[in-house]
């Protein structure tokens, strides 16, 4: 960005409010002209600090200046930033946030300013989250004629805060069972391995880097709904009554309520549908075929593989080869046959994850037993 002429008078610009650093500058001016732009850059500090992540918009919200820092920040997400702001970032806000932004930057009561979180996403990159602030520009007559927009990359903080919150929920769910061990975590890594293969071979257009990264954690939350299942059912040593089975199956619906605030819809898809069967005989809604979300179809295979490998009070663990044979045998009934073709190609990767993350010693379990007692494959396998 160009440095303003030394003789350019910047006193005509007014600061709106009291701010202590460049990130919170609120600038105002009348009609933006070519001569104004260097002044704006000087006031915003961009000429002295190219690392300040700001852009300048005119009164029509056209992006007219971008610092090097902003160009670097969005280099993987937006090819051309010199467009109307909402042509570039319109998909980064949901409808409610978009409406709030448009009202706020035109309203005197909000100081013509706005601050919120934008989510920037493309099919080939993981999501970038920015705390984004609109800072109005005005001159002596107090008419807004442009904005400085400041971006702060909060991706790491956003993801950590989100995961810390739901990690606590997952740990609470583990307290309901004394023998899940590393089961949930392994299911996450099996699911990721399958997604990586699908993505690399371009087999499903909906898969992207975010899908792959998020399924590791979200697959591990598949049984979180069992927090709401009574202990006497989870820990019952004998067979469940029909009524008790009905209560047990409610963990899928309970999981969607627990994960309702998670921003990724995959969380609720997996919790709700990981017991649905390809042939429509699963639960809770007897969905069939591609009516079942892809994420849930993937996790179902991962979940059953790990449960078969685990030792139970009433059975020894299954060897890898026997487990693979049982899963392939149920392609088209319990499992998506196309995904089973992929599983048959990469099943050794599952075995490697099992060996790497295997629990030191596994004994009988109540929760996992109950889960699989209902599934057809488990009548003989568990």
CATH architecture descriptor of the largest domain: Orthogonal Bundle
CATH topology descriptor of the largest domain = Hypothetical protein af1432
Q: Identify the overall geometry.
A: elongated
Sheet having the most strands: 5 strands, antiparallel
Instruction: Give the DSSP E fraction (strand runs of 2 or more residues).
Output: 5-15%
Strand-pairing-aware structural class: alpha+beta
Radius of gyration equals 27 Å
How far is it from the N-terminal to the C-terminal residue, by CA?
67 Å
Oligomer: single chain
CATH-assigned homologous superfamily of the largest domain: Hypothetical protein af1432
CATH class of the largest domain: Mainly Alpha
DSSP strand tally: 7
Strand order of the largest sheet: 4-3-7-6-5
Pattern of helices and strands: EEHEEHHHEEEHHHHHHHHHHHH
Number of separate helices: 16
How many structural units, i.e. domains? 2
Question: Which residue ranges are poorly predicted, with pLDDT under 50 across at least 5 consecutive positions?
Answer: 1-35, 43-48, 362-370, 372-376, 378-382
Q: What is the average of the pLDDT values?
A: 81
Helix content: 40-55%
